[in-house]
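Regression test case RT-17, inverse folding.

Input:
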């Protein structure tokens, strides 16, 4: 679907041995026992067979893998956490540069910065930074990689207070298409840093990312509250009126879904439609309690799990619901207004969802996200008050197409209130026009100029591709 198939390239044994001997990490080949495990990614809809997997131990391995792929004219796929929805982090017949072994994090508590290697997940990152009561906006699921997440934008529970993950990226070391290591920071290659704040993996492989981190937790007022699915319209209307009143410390989303067989939900509702509202308050707990009270006052919840919990517990709370292997397709939209018609359209699409595992997420944007302007980074759509994500998900291939068609129809139903593009990390393979709309024409042209400078041959094209 998203990637082109490259005819398997015949590589001589001597060539492969030379590559292998030059690595501190591992070269994994199709005949190796762990090849199938090593090539698999989170989204089971994509089943690809790279010719080689270079599991890098450090920068030198990444440089070597890039040089090798370029000189052998092999396609390059880059793997951080492996959560790419369009399956960009694997390929057929090319070289998979696997960063999953590069997970060190160095925190400077006094300077409030953290330097993380490009293969870290949010679980790795939060574990280290929370030891000092520090955090940056991470994923809603802790197994997501910091690499793809941050370079594409990065929306999460701290975004309204701290900005997107990419807004807090203050430097990065990047192996570019020519195999060089380039430092991008606010005083050095600042234009590259601008592009890395939303432009994805287009310019090279980030071996390390430096973040500004903020005092958060370690205990926060957070969690989900669930209501019966037949109250979807009431909850969405409440959400529309409530969200504009909220301070930046509170980030929330509405989830229109079906109750999973989870222990925190009464057995009687398992398999029935439910509406979740999830909130995280990154501030003083008592103030958080006051802010979520109007939500609790809606009354008669199926389960109310909003309370004081460790920030890292909140970060991992949803992990069991998002195990790897299922077939997934996401679509996204930046929503300008929740009109009555938009609310009605959302509810109708919710009622029409073909599988219990498919769901609709409406995130409240704004706050710090909106205040960082286009001058700060390439990420587009930041002035929208809401970002919408529709998840088509089925356990296997059976029924998946119907879910994909439903997801497409759902973003179409929201077109009257949404912008042309969407959030690139929540999309399938977007294509040129949708990408241009997602970044805005001016940002897109700036990204094309950067691409021409750092990757004129488009070696890094398995991504939401900015074509040189
Ligand atoms: C279960 C799940 C939950 C999610 N939750 C959120 C969420 O809360 N908020 C949100 O904003 N997004 C979320 N996403 C989307 C997520 O941000 C993207 O899928 C992102 O690309 C994942 O990053 P990764 O490193 O895990 O992905 P990978 O599949 O490893 O990489 C995806 C692409 O990113 C690039 N890339 C990755 N690492 C690097 C690197 N170090 N250097 C250069 N390029 C790199 C490459 O182009 C690669 O093809 C979620 C996705 C899933 C599957």
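Golden output:
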């Amino acid at each position: 679907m998203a990637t082109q198939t490259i005819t398997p390239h015949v590589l001589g044994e001597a060539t492969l041995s030379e590559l292998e001997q030059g690595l501190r990490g591992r070269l994994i080949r199709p005949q190796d026992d762990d090849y199938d495990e090593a090539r698999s990614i989170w989204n089971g809809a994509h089943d690809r067979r790279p010719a080689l997997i270079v599991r890098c131990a450090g920068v030198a391995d990444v440089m070597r893998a890039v040089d090798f792929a370029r000189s052998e004219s092999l396609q390059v796929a880059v793997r951080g956490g492996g959560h790419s929805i369009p399956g960009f982090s694997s390929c057929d017949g090319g070289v998979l540069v696997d960063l999953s072994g590069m997970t060190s994090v160095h925190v400077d508590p006094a300077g409030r910065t953290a330097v993380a290697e490009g293969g870290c997940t949010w679980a790795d990152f939060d574990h280290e930074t929370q030891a000092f009561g520090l955090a940056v906006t991470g994923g809603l699921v802790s197994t997501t990689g910091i690499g793809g997440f941050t370079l594409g934008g990065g929306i999460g529970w701290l975004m309204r207070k701290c900005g997107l993950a990419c807004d807090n990226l203050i430097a990065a070391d990047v192996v570019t298409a020519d195999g060089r290591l380039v430092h991008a920071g606010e005083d050095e290659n600042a234009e590259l840093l601008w592009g890395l704040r939303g432009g994805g993996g287009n310019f090279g492989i980030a071996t390390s990312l430096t973040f500004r981190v903020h005092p958060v937790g370690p205990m926060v007022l957070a969690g989900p509250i669930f209501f019966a699915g037949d109250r979807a319209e009431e909850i969405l209307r409440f959400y529309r009126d409530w969200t504009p009143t909220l301070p930046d410390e509170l980030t929330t989303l509405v989830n229109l879904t079906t109750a999973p067989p989870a222990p925190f939900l009464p057995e009687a509702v398992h398999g029935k439609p439910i509406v979740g509202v999830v909130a995280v308050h990154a501030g003083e707990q008592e103030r958080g309690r006051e802010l979520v009270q109007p939500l609790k006052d809606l009354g008669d919840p199926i389960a109310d799990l909003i309370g004081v919990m460790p920030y890292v517990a909140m970060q991992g709370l949803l992990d069991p619901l998002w195990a790897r292997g299922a077939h997934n397709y996401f679509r996204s939209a930046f929503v300008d207004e929740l009109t009555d018609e938009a609310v009605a359209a959302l509810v109708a699409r919710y009622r029409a969802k073909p599988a219990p595992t498919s769901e609709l997420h409406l995130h409240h944007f704004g706050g710090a996200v909106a205040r960082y302007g286009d001058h700060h980074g390439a990420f587009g759509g930041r002035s929208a008050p809401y970002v919408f994500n529709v998840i088509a998900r089925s356990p296997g291939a059976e029924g998946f197409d119907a879910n994909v068609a439903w997801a497409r129809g759902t973003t179409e139903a929201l077109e009257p209130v949404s912008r042309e593009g969407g959030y690139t990390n929540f999309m399938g393979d977007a294509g040129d026009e949708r990408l241009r709309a997602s970044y805005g024409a001016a940002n897109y042209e700036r990204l094309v100029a950067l691409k021409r400078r750092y990757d004129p041959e488009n070696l890094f094209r398995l991504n939401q591709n900015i074509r040189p």
